[in-house]
Design brief:
alpha+beta, Alpha-Beta Plaits, extended, 5-stranded antiparallel beta sheet, 3-stranded antiparallel beta sheet
Length: 274
Amino acid sequence: MENESPTYLCVQQRAGPFVKAFVTDRQCFIRRNGVSKNGVRKRCGPAMCRTSVDKLELRLALFGYDGVFYTLTFADEHLPDSLDGVMHVWDAFCKRLKRFCKKSMDYYVYRVEGLHGDHRYHIHAFIRDADFPPAVVRYLWVWGEAYDVPYNQKRVMAEQGYRGLAIYFTKELPDVGRHPWGCSRKLSKLIPPPEVHMSNTGQLRVPRDAVRTVKESESAASREREKPAATNGGTQMQNKDLAAILESKITGNTVRIGRTLAEEIIKALKGEKK
């Protein structure tokens, strides 16, 4: 019987500046497909996008740090009566954008909602800033108000990617027979196939161009701030401040611990000898 070494299958899916990865030791991936990368990709592709959130996360990552999240609301006089009416307005708005900027809309994701809050229809959209700046979007949205939140590098890294935004997009259950969100046809084609390789250890190397997220940086800085002062000067300054506060409290006989004991504590805090 041959002594086979443990084998792991490592899959990495890149989308824009982000990479999703997983490692498995399930032998069925190898027995059924061999070591052929083309064969393995057919089984590993769905592992990166099993749910609607997974699929949307990859498409949002294609925007990099140049996306803008919009909430498009309707005024009372323009509020549609049905979901089909909202879709008609969205199609008209996309045509206005393309005519005004004279370019195609290849980078956009949208979602129609109206089941939470005041149950008014509104649209969430994610559009690339380089194609349609927020000023243009607000100017061309004539059916109500348009609120924009830029997803620059600072915000994306603070939220550790686009997972949270993908969950927010899919928080409402769609109607039967409808997809919870939509995107351009070209956007789905821009997702590259996953990178597959075999490994005996199952370890994944961190890319050289990887950066630390803002949350990790802030937590490290907060830990440094929480450290006690290393110098005696800082401690003496805190003691003097405490002595001043305590001294102001013992005017007369209002202190509960006794005037004599309080005076001794003040001298000790000030560093005075007995």
